[in-house]
Amino acid sequence: xxxxxxxxxxxxxxxxxxxxxxxxxxxxxxxxxxxxxxxxxxxxxxxxxxxxxxxxxxxxxxxxxxxxxxxxxxxxxxxxxxxxxxxxxxxxxxxxxxxxxxxxxxxxxxxxxxxxxxxxxxxxxxxxxxxxxxxxxxxxxxxxxxxxxxxxxxxxxxxxxxxxxxxxxxxxxxxxxxxxxxxxxxxxxxxxxxxxxxxxxxxxxxxxxxxxxxxxxxxxxxxxxxxxxxxxxxxxxxxxxxxxxxxxxxxxxxxxxxxxxxxxxxxxxxxxxxxxxxxxxxxxxxxxxxxxxxxxxxxxxxxxxxxxxxxxxxxxxxxxxxxxxxxxxxxxxxxxxxxxxxxxxxxxxxxxxxxxxxxxxxxxxxxxxxxxxxxxxxxxxxxxxxxxxxxxxxxxxxxxxxx
Amino acid sequence: xxxxxxxxxxxxxxxxxxxxxxxxxxxxxxxxxxxxxxxxxxxxxxxxxxxxxxxxxxxxxxxxxxxxxxxxxxxxxxxxxxxxxxxxxxxxxxxxxxxxxxxxxxxxxxxxxxxxxxxxxxxxxxxxxxxxxxxxxxxxxxxxxxxxxxxxxxxxxxxxxxxxxxxxxxxxxxxxxxxxxxxxxxxxxxxxxxxxxxxxxxxxxxxxxxxxxxxxxxxxxxxxxxxxxxxxxxxxxxxxxxxxxxxxxxxxxxxxxxxxxxxxxxxxxxxxxxxxxxxxxxxxxxxxxxxxxxxxx
Lengths: 403, 297
Known about the structure:
The complex is a heterodimer.
Chain A: H1 2-21, E1 49-56, H2 63-79, E2 82-83, E3 86-94, H3 99-112, E4 117-119, H4 124-137, E5 141-143, E6 158-160, H5 165-178, E7 184-189, H6 193-210, E8 216-222, H7 230-239, E9 243-245, H8 253-262, E10 268-271, H9 278-284, E11 292-295, H10 305-318, H11 327-346, H12 351-359, E12 364-366, E13 369-371, E14 383-390, E15 393-401
Parallel strand pairs in A: 1-3, 1-4, 4-5, 5-6, 7-8, 7-9, 9-10, 10-11
Antiparallel strand pairs in A: 2-3, 11-14, 12-13, 14-15
Chain B: H1 3-34, H2 41-58, H3 63-86, H4 94-116, E1 121-122, H5 127-130, E2 132-135, E3 138-141, H6 142-164, H7 166-176, H8 178-183, H9 188-213, E4 216-217, H10 223-236, H11 241-261, H12 269-283
């Protein structure tokens, strides 16, 4: 009996180890610089599939958002399954919302799975961490919703389909001031590039727009896996700001919102694009009412023909699962069709050729609008959607254009 | 800083501290008996929160029955972990059993990620616990208010069991000298099972109170509280139940007070917990209330 139990246990532990380290399985050659030249076709000639890597957090603090984005990418793959007469195969890896895992995950995609291009990731920190590997391997990558400027900066091979944080920070600051806010408090997650970046762009924009250096009354930081915000919120309560801006992951946000309301804080609470996630309403319940966030897309206002098709089709896919189409799913869809279009125009799966084709993208009709790329490889967008929560649903408030 | 803000922070600190204390008792008791740091304790706490979510939200069972179900399920899990992962290693070197504990911890985390995904679930809103009460400008939920009392009451019960009952006497005997206790006819396995029952019971209660205050349930939610409570147990003197509770209160209070008085250092909150651990280990390795034990290895 004892022997059977210990045997069973060791088997279970080995299994646990596997789930824990799957993306790290090729750790041995993980740190070697990949060959720079792409003389060989990354995909073996005889294979009649083209592999595109999908690099998303499916677990960890951004797991919820990663899954939403993956949904959009998979739907796009279903709609447009072929390029250059070959089938497109998606290879999905989980970067676990962790910068360390991100580098092994992306190395695995490039070296083991030999993907021709990569989509992702939700969460800027992991995208930035993977940036150098992508650049050195000369495999073009298309970020869907990573908004931090550093993702594409100085990286010829990283593109993205969404707007950037300086823009988003400005949008939120503008909105707050339009609502009559004169003071703001900011909460950010130490060590998370997305949260810190967006928080700082908001701070700068808010100071600029109010013309008052002291308009930001409190800046507090917290760390990964924190769940107690009572102390920092009590400090904030004492300063009584008009708005609290707390860009954070969908796992953390409801805790901040709920604890703020429990402490009797009635300031307007605002966040960024990560907040458009049903998990926030599920966890924070009634306390989520009235929060404000900016996002990329609104299903009730399709900008293009492609968007109309997408909304109609994807709505059916989501029926019973999610009440609205998450904006990151729309961006995931756009990222996929942008890449597919570039591969088609490049006429080959060579990394440099695809990159050049991506750069030459002109007035591409995506779900989130007409897309052109700037010099840095960012989608040239100047429209954001503001949403709030009402009766347990995300509802459209306004669309904001900033020049 | 006004007096009201300070009072609010004091309440925050006491409440957080008592949650730490509940979990720290579990660490300290297992250590006292087995000389094992039960790394899986934080994950058993996490599973308890999931049991509560499923019981109330999925099966629609009223909350007071759900709490009982959660306690039974958590205790079963705790005893099961002991029986499968620790008992077979009873005579193995202490390091092996510790590694086994780490393995169980990873197993539970990954199992939860696999079964329930990494997307956070909302902890069921138990109105009795989450109602906000206003005392002047103080704003407290019922859970915040009752947590310290629940903790102290449970501490009293645990102390009563260990000091006044027959099984408690056996526990103390096993804790003093494992081998001799065995020779004196004490049923070691039973004593250890009961230790795990008490520890898991406290983890389940802790999870209910924790969830009512911090309603985000996810597979890694037990990691940080687990580490902090381990620190609390070491701070109070690992092996000493009263010490664990004291350590929990001190740690919770220290974290909140750091943020109250040095708001610019909010990002260093976790770092401070570890600094406290290092200082304790350097200055008084046995902890505040710990006795000096001669190592039996």
